[in-house]
Design brief:
200 residues, binds flavin mononucleotide, alpha/beta
Length: 200
């Protein structure tokens, strides 16, 4: 699985998604944009830097994350595995996805590894899950979501629900990460299934 972290608010959605995939023994190929790095640091603190991500994830989400493995690619390296359709990466989530990266994917720009890897997912008809975060949204931004959806991506907005009665920010992140794992084809227990009644 490829995970891309870009510079939209909601870095906690990315770390929760990463931890849940790793705890399931998944090999993750990770790319973080420059602003993605900044948001990781600004929203989650000094310890959440990309070069110390595994210790951060283990401390926050538990040692179970060590069941999986991570390869970190530079966003500037368009010669990385993810840049080719011949690489066996079966799906990708861009979480959170900035409006800038959304626009680039919508128009097939492929200017960096995140954009190129997303383009590869679309051309190979593999799962691409885009988790945009912005509010309000301009007409061009909404049109870019439609363009990506028409090309085969799933648009999964960073919109946590409240019917699970969340008590913490981590509860909200669990909900979003669960939605992302489902979209990528993984079972999970990040939130209880809907029973028909709030609070049951
Ligand atoms: C603190 C902070 C919060 C931001 N939040 C958002 C956001 O929620 N959505 C968004 O589209 N851009 C947001 N931005 C702007 C993007 O980071 C900026 O457009 C950047 O160029 C995106 O580049 P990237 O897609 O390569 O990460 C934010 C920037 C900062 C510094």
């Amino acid at each position: 699985m490829a995970i891309a972290i870009t510079g939209a608010s909601g870095a906690i959605y990315a770390t929760r998604t990463l931890a849940a995939l790793l705890a399931r023994g998944v090999h993750v190929e990770l790319v973080v944009s420059d602003y993605g790095k900044r948001l990781l640091h600004d929203e989650l603190g000094e310890a959440a830097s990309v070069d110390r991500l595994m210790p951060f994830l283990a401390a926050k989400y538990g040692e179970a994350v060590n069941a999986g493995s991570v390869t970190i690619h530079s966003n500037r390296d368009q010669g990385a595995t993810l840049a080719s359709g011949s690489h066996g990466c079966s799906g990708m989530a861009i979480v959170p996805c900035s409006m800038k990266t959304l626009a680039a994917v919508a128009h097939g720009l492929s200017r960096n590894l995140i954009e190129r890897a997303a383009d590869v997912m679309l051309k190979e008809h593999r799962r691409l899950v885009i988790v945009p975060r912005e509010t309000p949204m301009s007409l061009p931004q909404r049109r870019n979501m439609v363009r990506c959806a028409e090309a085969g991506a799933m648009i999964l907005p960073a919109m946590p629900a409240f019917y699970q009665l969340p008590k913490t920010l981590d509860d909200l992140a669990d909900f979003m990460a669960g939605k992302i794992l489902s979209a990528l084809g993984f079972e999970h227990d990040l939130y209880p299934p809907w029973t028909g009644q709030v609070g049951e």
